[in-house]
């Protein structure tokens, strides 16, 4: 049996991405074959497609997440037809990922879920919620009543982090480089939208004179010193994202780089960092309209080039999703 998939033979421009026909993969024991209904796009897939990923192997089907139903689980971990999502664990890098009609992943990367949400919405959630949840709780150990700065607030993870933090009872400051997006951040519940002109620390301290308790860095190392300056003594900055593609700190000298008493952590975790019960609770909150996750646009598989172009150009606010459509028989 064959399926449709996007296969990367090496680095290409977005417009060179093509849907191909390949055999449906067979799952070994301990792995699960998922009939994919939707998958979200992620920055790491742009890095892979553009040749910026150091651990890439080609050819590969990209995609670090997917949503769908269990098609086959030889080990009996999940019943066929079970609604699930999958993410991380080497998807789309070490083995073929979610940019396909079927994907085979380790059972440990699969999270069961039960929801009436449409597939495109569910497909937007796994990696976005996992990264936001892990950054907030593992990277920053947030607590109700704290102040949080989200640097890169209109990215999909930035949007998710803001709404999860608000749900937890934090006061949220969130940045955008585009003044036209300030009101959009307000509608998502951000208390203090900030236009990022490169000097966010000064603007933050006008609002919170002693600095924020926690800061989530999603832009990159190029703005990290400014984010650190926006953070209070004994506050924590979590480095999670690299929207600017600035990954490393040249000639890192900790005493000169880190403000006194400000902690710097990082997060790049796995699906196990998002317990099934926490994911189900977030999905239920989304379904109830209490967690305003934003999807920028839903594409078909044949529009994957346009989707990657929009992601690379930073033109989206929130998540980009591809919905798998199959001919009816």
From TrEMBL:
GO MF annotation: an example: oxidoreductase activity, acting on NAD(P)H
Record keyword Transferase present: no
Transmembrane residue ranges: none
Keyword tags: NADP, Oxidoreductase
Domain of life: Bacteria
Gene3D superfamilies the UniProt entry points to: Medium-chain alcohol dehydrogenases, catalytic domain, NAD(P)-binding Rossmann-like Domain
One Pfam family in the UniProt entry: ADH_N
Domain Enoyl reductase (ER): 12-322
PANTHER family listed in its UniProt record: QUINONE OXIDOREDUCTASE PIG3 (PTHR48106:SF18), QUINONE OXIDOREDUCTASE PIG3-RELATED (PTHR48106)
This protein's name: NADPH:quinone reductase-like Zn-dependent oxidoreductase
High-level lineage: Bacteria, Bacillati, Actinomycetota, Actinomycetes, Propionibacteriales
């Amino acid at each position: 049996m064959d399926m449709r998939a996007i296969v990367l033979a090496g680095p290409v421009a977005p417009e060179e991405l093509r849907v191909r026909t390949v055999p449906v993969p067979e799952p070994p024991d301990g792995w699960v074959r998922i009939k994919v209904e939707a998958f979200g796009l992620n920055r790491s897939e742009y890095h892979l497609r553009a040749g910026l990923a150091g651990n890439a192997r080609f050819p590969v089907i990209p995609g670090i997440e997917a949503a769908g139903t269990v098609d086959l689980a030889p080990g009996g971990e999940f019943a066929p037809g079970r609604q699930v999502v999958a993410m991380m664990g080497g998807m789309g890098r070490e083995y073929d990922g979610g940019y396909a009609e079927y994907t085979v992943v380790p059972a440990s990367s699969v999270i069961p879920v039960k929801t009436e949400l449409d597939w495109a919405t569910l497909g937007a959630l796994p990696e976005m919620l996992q990264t936001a949840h892990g950054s907030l709780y593992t990277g920053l150990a947030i607590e109700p009543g704290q102040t949080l700065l989200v640097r890169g607030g209109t990215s999909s993870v930035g949007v998710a982090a803001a709404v999860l933090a608000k749900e937890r009872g934090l006061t949220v400051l969130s940045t955008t480089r585009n003044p036209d997006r300030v009101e959009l951040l307000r509608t998502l519940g951000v208390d203090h939208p900030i236009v990022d002109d490169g000097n966010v620390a000064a603007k933050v301290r006008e609002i919170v004179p002693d600095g924020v308790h926690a800061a989530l860095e999603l832009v990159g190392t190029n703005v990290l010193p400014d984010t650190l300056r926006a953070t209070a003594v004994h506050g924590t900055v979590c480095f999670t994202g690299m929207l600017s593609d600035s990954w490393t700190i040249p000639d890192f000298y900790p005493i000169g780089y880190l403000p006194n008493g400000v902690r710097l952590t990082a997060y790049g975790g796995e699906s196990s960092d998002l317990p099934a019960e926490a994911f189900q609770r977030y999905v239920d909150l989304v379904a109830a309209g209490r967690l305003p996750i934003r999807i920028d646009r839903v594409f078909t598989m044949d529009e994957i080039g346009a989707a990657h172009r929009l992601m690379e150009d930073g033109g989206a606010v929130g998540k980009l999703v591809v919905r798998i459509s199959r001919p009816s028989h």
